[in-house]
Amino acid sequence: MLPGTELSSLTKAWRLRLNRAEMTGLPPKKSSSRVVTQADVATLVGCSPLWYGNLERGVREPGYSAEFLQSVADVLALDSHERTVLFLLALGREPAGSAAAGPNPHSASVEIIHHMVVPAWFMTPSGDVLDYNGAALRWFPHLAHENNLFRWICQSPGAKRQLVRWQADWLSSAIAQLRAANARWPDDPRLREVLGELLDTNATVRAVWDRQACVRLHPDAEVRSLFLPGGQSLARVQHVVTDLADRSQLRMVALMPHCPPPPL
User: Fold this and answer.
1) DSSP, residue by residue, 14-78
2) pTM for the full model?
3) N or C: less crowded end of the chain, CB within 10 Å?
4) How many domains is the chain partitioned into structurally?
5) Is pLDDT at 213 greater than 80 in this prediction?
6) Is 246 within a domain?
7) With 60 as the cut, is the pLDDT of residue 1 above it?
8) Three-state SS at 221
9) What is the pLDDT, as a whole number, of residue 100?
């Protein structure tokens, strides 16, 4: 199916599912028809009927602005999935922040980590841990009072004791992830807050940031070592990271036991 054909088919279907009697901001209509017309949508969007009509006819016009498409999506009452498809069909790209459906993982995802026997949690680009399982709390008791993983890694004396090769493996990776997140979500206020705090108050973080050009979108497949609480047992783990499909700013992280392959 050609994008223009899909654009025409979907926008028309989205418009026709609306009920004119339930919409505000439209002039009274003599007939009792509840059908929302192209002219009605154009009125609510604030554009000419011809301009909106081009969209519904499947004309992929490079002059469509993000603001125009957002207004169309609002008037047509599109959900996050439909809004993203509208942008993809009309402009060939997703709307800014399209996958950030909400700050929290949905309940089914939460249930998954609570059935896992290895440490697992959900975290944001800024390092805030939104939910975690019992194994994560046993390995990282600080989660009960400090829920930002990057801040704990960078600033806690306990992290320096627990995390093997603290600066080379753990701190460097945390800073590389923050740097990549800063490029990807420069307007995230929580990310700016955490990053600003760490760079302004921690000389070690600032020094590593200034000299290290490494960036990491995520720590997936990274292998690291740490002591379990009490300092007696040493664990070597591999990070497994999964981005949530409908929440691009939220990921699930699990620490799997790492067993090197046997020699050939």
Assistant:
1) HHHTS-GGG-SS----SS---PPPHHHHHHHHTS-HHHHHHHHTT---TT--HHHHHHHHHHTT-
2) 0.65
3) C
4) 2
5) no
6) yes
7) no
8) coil
9) 45
